[in-house]
Specification:
The chain has 344 residues and is an alpha/beta fold. The chain has 2 domains: 161 residues, 3-Layer(aba) Sandwich (Rossmann fold); 98 residues, Rossmann fold, CATH 3.40.50. It contains 11 helices and 13 strands. The protein has a 9-stranded mixed β-sheet with strand order 3-4-2-5-1-6-7-8-13, sandwiched between helices. The chain has a 4-stranded parallel β-sheet with strand order 10-9-11-12, with helices on both faces. Helix 8 links the parallel strand 9 and strand 10. Helix 3 packs parallel to helix 5. The protein starts with 13 loop residues before the first helix and ends in a 5-residue tail after the last helix.
């Protein structure tokens, strides 16, 4: 197993501080909208658990949602996952099927469906429309990226915070906050990702005193996927590799690869949900040729989009993430048991 937990060094550029007052205004508007909408929230007809964050960008919601779904299945429940389907080219409510593509439902929805066979996954701008699509097939709902989607009620809110990026907890564009820090007070559980319980950034810790916390680290499975001549990460060490990522926190991915002992001759970071092909494909192929790379490494979410058009000959590989939860006081288990009516 491999894990990367060191902090990602980030500093906002000078122009971001000049625009910071606009970010403060954005947060004020966001808070007012959340307060107004929350008072009119609707029920979805099933127990619902929200998984979200205070910031734009990646905190590990998708692998953690997969972990939650599997835990609920182990408890004998039938979860369904509802999400917005960000990055897709079409609008409306849709049930994810084996024929769904990232263009039609978004790459995160495709990844969730592939990782959770038998678990209904629905995309919709309005979660109640997604809930209607899974009616009769589920007895508990996981609301992915729904901390700010307060127009629907939930039985518990799980707030994910990336311990490696404390700088995100400022108004944009200096940071990446979606709403003021006081919004964290809505959380029933704080999930500190890429770190332990004690790694919660101090700037947020004072806002969630008394709220239970757990830590989550995302480890790599023992071998890269899909199957290739490289049957383990050890087989790739010392070989020249090219890596790329179009996720919310690409720096964490590259750092984790280097901590695994992998030799990244080139690492390309693109915006979250960046579309594949075109100039990006040409750039990648150019780097593969320049570095004589034996393989190209990317995230599982990016692999969903890039695999259908990858020309080779260097294999396109990804690490499957496994969530390892630090929860000595069983806070998460208690929330799940209460959610499904199996305990206090």
């Amino acid at each position: 197993m491999v894990e990367g937990e060191s902090r990602i060094s980030e500093r906002a550029p000078a122009w971001a501080y000049a625009l910071w007052p606009l970010g403060v205004l954005f947060l004020a508007v966001s808070a007012a909208k959340t307060s107004l909408t929350r008072s009119r929230g609707m029920r979805l007809g099933l127990p619902a658990l929200s998984v979200g964050n205070l910031t734009f960008g990646g905190t590990g919601k998708t692998p953690f949602t997969i972990h939650l779904a599997r835990r609920l299945q182990a408890m004998g429940r039938n979860p369904a996952v509802l999400l917005r389907g960000y990055g897709r080219a079409v609008a409306g409510a849709s049930l994810v099927t084996s024929g769904s593509t990232p263009e039609s439902v978004g790459e995160e929805a495709v990844l969730l469906a592939r990782s959770l066979p038998g678990v209904p996954v629905a995309v919709a701008e309005r979660r109640e429309k997604g809930a209607a699509l899974v009616a009769g097939r589920a007895d508990v709902l996981l609301l992915d990226d729904a901390f700010q989607h307060v127009r629907v009620r939930r039985d518990a809110d799980l707030l994910l915070v990336d311990a490696s990026r404390p700088g995100d907890l400022h108004a944009p564009p200096v940071g990446r906050l979606r709403e003021p820090l006081r919004g964290a007070g809505r959380a029933d559980l704080v999930v500190v990702t890429r770190g332990g319980v004690s790694d919660l950034p101090p700037r947020l810790a004072t806002r969630v005193e008394g709220v239970p916390r757990v830590g989550v680290r995302f480890e790599w499975a023992s071998a890269p996927e899909p199957a290739s001549p490289f049957g383990s990460w050890e087989a790739l060490r010392e070989l020249p590799l090219v890596a790329f990522a179009g996720i919310g926190n690409p720096g964490a991915f590259f750092q984790q690869a280097r901590e695994a002992g992998l030799r990244l001759e080139s690492s390309l970071a693109w915006p979250d949900h960046a579309r594949p092909g075109g100039f990006r494909l040409q750039r990648l192929l150019g780097e593969v040729e320049r570095t004589h790379a034996h393989a190209v490494l990317t995230t599982e979410k990016d692999h969903v989009k890039w695999a259908p058009l990858w020309p080779g000959p260097a294999p396109l590989l990804f690490p499957r993430l496994e969530a390892k939860v630090e929860d000595p006081d069983d806070h998460l288990d208690r929330i799940l048991r209460k959610l499904v009516g199996a305990g206090p």
